[in-house]
Amino acid sequence: MTISRRNMMQAGVGAIATASPVSAADEPAPKPRPIHERICLFTDHLDDDGFSYAEVASHLKQLGVAGPDLTVRPGGLVSPEKVADELPKAAAAFRDQGLTIPMISTGLTSARDPAARPILAAMKKLGIRHFKTGYYKYDDPDRWEERIASARRELASLVDLAKDAGVCAGLHNHAGPTVGGAMWDGVELLKGHDDNHVGFYFDPMHATIEGGNFGWQLGFRKLTPRLKMVAIKDYVWEKTPAGWRTRMCPLGEGMVRWPEFFKLLARARFDGPLSLHIEYDPGGKSKAERLENSLAAARKDLLFLRKQLATAFPKP
Prior knowledge:
By secondary structure, this protein is of the alpha/beta class. It is built from 9 helices and 10 strands.
């Protein structure tokens, strides 16, 4: 299902406390909300059906999440070119529903991107703390050292802007030819950068795709000290006429070892947002049917997620 990318938000904002909060020296960091109250919904699957910000906010309110992981990138719910005007409208719509914007997903990789300053400035103004960066691709895997070095320079310029805005970037460990997908290369990329303003956006699904049986666990342990955000989704491998491919699926029906992951997460000092992704097709021929199926899929996945959290993070 897809809920429009343009109109989708007139809503509220609210920063969720991060793993490395930025605060004045004489001000204690705010106490983070319980983890089950830090779940947000990635809006990528809601990008294309022309819903207003208010409609999207209403849909998320029904689900009982903290707010959106809002797409602020080309083709996203908020256009980067219009972020100064549109992000406040989105924030207001969510705020009207009692929601915040725990994080946004961007395509930013460098301060040279014309959208970088306006996006981060809008985040600062609205109190949005976390943002996902774009991807640094490996064009020639044989020159991986050079690519990590060049990506480090690009990221450094973006982190400088993040410092000025008081926000925190998250590097996503996306599977495939991207810096960070192997996890060890993400650790190399982040060396020397300010921990308060850049860290990892860990995705156990992509980590399992690349790390299989045990590698994902070792990678997670390595990057845990810089953990800022977590993505929640699942997948299976399936054989197709074109060969083996990954297919997204509902939580608990795939290959991610959720109890093992959440046990590890409970040991980490993590107080950032968890972004639930509905990246499989819930079906539906009409706009209304796709919306209803998408909401049903989100409810099912949220039920699974909350059960996992209740086990790994029992309330006192």
